Amino acid sequence: MKQLFLIAFAFCLFATSNAQVTVNGVSVPSKLKTATSELTLNGAGVRKKAFFKVYVLGLYLPAKNNNAAEILKSDKDIAVRLQITSSVVNSENMSEAIIDGFKKSMNGNLTPLKAKIDNFISIFSKEKIKEGDVFILDYNAASGVKSYKNGKLLATTTGDDFKDALFGIWLGANPVDAALKTSLVGK
Does a structural domain hold residue 141? Predict the structure, then answer.
Protein backbone atom coordinates (compact mmCIF):
# COMPACT_ATOMS: atom_id res chain seq x y z
CA MET A 1 0.00 0.00 0.00
CA LYS A 2 2.86 2.36 0.83
CA GLN A 3 4.44 1.71 -2.61
CA LEU A 4 1.14 2.42 -4.34
CA PHE A 5 0.87 5.73 -2.47
CA LEU A 6 4.45 6.71 -3.45
CA ILE A 7 3.80 5.86 -7.11
CA ALA A 8 0.57 7.88 -7.10
CA PHE A 9 2.35 10.80 -5.41
CA ALA A 10 5.20 10.73 -7.95
CA PHE A 11 2.69 10.64 -10.81
CA CYS A 12 0.88 13.68 -9.40
CA LEU A 13 4.15 15.61 -9.13
CA PHE A 14 5.04 14.75 -12.73
CA ALA A 15 1.58 15.65 -14.00
CA THR A 16 1.53 19.03 -12.27
CA SER A 17 5.08 19.90 -13.31
CA ASN A 18 4.11 19.54 -16.97
CA ALA A 19 0.72 21.18 -16.64
CA GLN A 20 -0.19 24.40 -18.32
CA VAL A 21 -0.90 27.49 -16.29
CA THR A 22 -4.14 29.41 -16.85
CA VAL A 23 -3.92 33.19 -16.61
CA ASN A 24 -6.94 35.39 -17.38
CA GLY A 25 -8.56 32.47 -19.20
CA VAL A 26 -5.46 31.82 -21.36
CA SER A 27 -3.66 28.47 -21.18
CA VAL A 28 0.04 29.25 -21.00
CA PRO A 29 2.16 26.20 -21.93
CA SER A 30 4.70 25.00 -19.38
CA LYS A 31 7.29 24.49 -22.15
CA LEU A 32 8.08 26.42 -25.32
CA LYS A 33 10.03 24.84 -28.16
CA THR A 34 12.15 27.29 -30.11
CA ALA A 35 14.39 26.73 -33.11
CA THR A 36 17.34 26.11 -30.80
CA SER A 37 16.02 24.80 -27.49
CA GLU A 38 13.10 23.93 -25.26
CA LEU A 39 12.47 26.54 -22.61
CA THR A 40 10.54 26.32 -19.34
CA LEU A 41 7.85 28.70 -18.19
CA ASN A 42 9.38 30.94 -15.53
CA GLY A 43 6.23 32.94 -14.82
CA ALA A 44 3.17 34.44 -16.47
CA GLY A 45 0.90 37.39 -15.89
CA VAL A 46 -1.51 39.91 -17.33
CA ARG A 47 -0.57 43.26 -18.86
CA LYS A 48 -3.16 45.80 -17.79
CA LYS A 49 -3.65 49.19 -19.38
CA ALA A 50 -6.31 51.45 -17.91
CA PHE A 51 -9.24 49.13 -17.21
CA PHE A 52 -8.31 46.58 -19.86
CA LYS A 53 -6.40 43.32 -19.59
CA VAL A 54 -4.69 43.62 -22.96
CA TYR A 55 -2.46 40.55 -23.10
CA VAL A 56 -1.13 37.57 -21.20
CA LEU A 57 2.63 37.23 -21.20
CA GLY A 58 4.66 34.13 -20.35
CA LEU A 59 8.44 34.28 -19.77
CA TYR A 60 10.46 31.22 -20.83
CA LEU A 61 14.02 30.42 -19.75
CA PRO A 62 16.37 27.40 -19.82
CA ALA A 63 15.97 27.16 -16.02
CA LYS A 64 13.82 28.98 -13.48
CA ASN A 65 15.24 32.27 -12.21
CA ASN A 66 13.63 34.92 -10.00
CA ASN A 67 16.28 37.61 -10.50
CA ALA A 68 15.18 39.96 -13.30
CA ALA A 69 18.56 41.74 -13.55
CA GLU A 70 20.36 38.41 -13.87
CA ILE A 71 17.91 37.25 -16.55
CA LEU A 72 18.52 40.42 -18.58
CA LYS A 73 22.33 40.17 -18.29
CA SER A 74 22.39 36.53 -19.38
CA ASP A 75 23.24 35.55 -22.94
CA LYS A 76 21.19 32.36 -22.60
CA ASP A 77 18.07 31.73 -24.67
CA ILE A 78 15.00 33.63 -23.53
CA ALA A 79 11.51 33.98 -24.98
CA VAL A 80 8.16 35.52 -24.22
CA ARG A 81 4.78 34.34 -25.42
CA LEU A 82 2.34 37.23 -25.71
CA GLN A 83 -1.33 36.45 -26.34
CA ILE A 84 -3.76 39.28 -27.09
CA THR A 85 -6.77 39.07 -24.76
CA SER A 86 -8.72 42.21 -25.57
CA SER A 87 -10.59 43.31 -28.67
CA VAL A 88 -9.49 46.91 -27.99
CA VAL A 89 -5.94 46.01 -29.06
CA ASN A 90 -5.11 46.90 -32.65
CA SER A 91 -1.94 47.42 -34.67
CA GLU A 92 -1.73 51.11 -33.92
CA ASN A 93 -2.19 51.05 -30.15
CA MET A 94 -0.02 47.92 -29.80
CA SER A 95 2.78 49.66 -31.69
CA GLU A 96 2.41 52.75 -29.47
CA ALA A 97 2.44 50.62 -26.32
CA ILE A 98 5.62 48.81 -27.40
CA ILE A 99 7.32 52.12 -28.22
CA ASP A 100 6.33 53.40 -24.76
CA GLY A 101 7.82 50.21 -23.32
CA PHE A 102 11.11 50.80 -25.15
CA LYS A 103 11.16 54.39 -23.84
CA LYS A 104 10.82 53.11 -20.26
CA SER A 105 13.37 50.37 -20.83
CA MET A 106 15.89 52.76 -22.39
CA ASN A 107 15.28 55.74 -20.09
CA GLY A 108 13.76 57.76 -22.92
CA ASN A 109 16.73 57.53 -25.30
CA LEU A 110 15.66 55.45 -28.32
CA THR A 111 18.25 57.00 -30.66
CA PRO A 112 20.90 54.22 -30.44
CA LEU A 113 18.37 51.54 -31.48
CA LYS A 114 15.89 53.57 -33.54
CA ALA A 115 16.31 51.58 -36.78
CA LYS A 116 16.05 48.24 -34.96
CA ILE A 117 13.03 49.36 -32.96
CA ASP A 118 11.28 50.66 -36.09
CA ASN A 119 11.90 47.34 -37.85
CA PHE A 120 10.63 45.41 -34.82
CA ILE A 121 7.52 47.61 -34.43
CA SER A 122 6.58 46.83 -38.04
CA ILE A 123 5.62 43.27 -37.00
CA PHE A 124 2.54 44.71 -35.32
CA SER A 125 1.36 46.45 -38.48
CA LYS A 126 2.10 43.77 -41.12
CA GLU A 127 -1.20 42.06 -40.40
CA LYS A 128 -4.28 43.13 -38.46
CA ILE A 129 -4.07 42.25 -34.77
CA LYS A 130 -7.06 40.52 -33.23
CA GLU A 131 -7.98 38.97 -29.91
CA GLY A 132 -6.35 35.55 -29.58
CA ASP A 133 -3.27 36.35 -31.69
CA VAL A 134 -0.06 34.91 -30.24
CA PHE A 135 3.34 36.58 -30.60
CA ILE A 136 6.53 34.71 -29.71
CA LEU A 137 9.67 36.79 -29.21
CA ASP A 138 12.55 34.33 -29.07
CA TYR A 139 16.17 35.34 -28.38
CA ASN A 140 19.22 33.24 -29.14
CA ALA A 141 22.73 34.74 -28.97
CA ALA A 142 23.64 33.36 -32.40
CA SER A 143 20.59 34.64 -34.28
CA GLY A 144 19.12 37.53 -32.28
CA VAL A 145 15.42 38.04 -31.57
CA LYS A 146 13.07 36.17 -33.87
CA SER A 147 9.54 37.57 -33.84
CA TYR A 148 6.64 35.28 -34.71
CA LYS A 149 2.92 35.94 -35.03
CA ASN A 150 0.69 32.87 -34.87
CA GLY A 151 3.68 30.68 -35.79
CA LYS A 152 4.81 32.79 -38.78
CA LEU A 153 8.28 34.38 -38.65
CA LEU A 154 7.88 38.13 -39.28
CA ALA A 155 11.27 39.60 -38.36
CA THR A 156 14.71 38.92 -36.96
CA THR A 157 16.53 41.64 -35.03
CA THR A 158 20.15 41.14 -34.02
CA GLY A 159 22.20 42.54 -31.18
CA ASP A 160 22.41 42.09 -27.43
CA ASP A 161 21.60 45.78 -27.05
CA PHE A 162 18.23 45.20 -28.73
CA LYS A 163 17.58 42.05 -26.67
CA ASP A 164 18.29 43.92 -23.45
CA ALA A 165 16.00 46.81 -24.43
CA LEU A 166 13.19 44.52 -25.60
CA PHE A 167 13.09 42.22 -22.59
CA GLY A 168 13.75 45.26 -20.38
CA ILE A 169 10.22 46.38 -21.29
CA TRP A 170 8.92 43.72 -18.89
CA LEU A 171 11.97 42.90 -16.73
CA GLY A 172 13.91 46.15 -16.51
CA ALA A 173 14.32 48.53 -13.59
CA ASN A 174 11.42 50.61 -14.94
CA PRO A 175 9.03 48.01 -16.44
CA VAL A 176 5.76 48.87 -18.19
CA ASP A 177 3.85 46.97 -15.49
CA ALA A 178 5.48 46.24 -12.11
CA ALA A 179 2.85 43.62 -11.18
CA LEU A 180 3.48 41.80 -14.47
CA LYS A 181 7.24 41.83 -13.81
CA THR A 182 6.62 40.29 -10.40
CA SER A 183 4.49 37.55 -11.98
CA LEU A 184 7.13 36.81 -14.62
CA VAL A 185 9.94 36.32 -12.12
CA GLY A 186 7.81 34.43 -9.63
CA LYS A 187 8.13 36.78 -6.71
Answer: yes
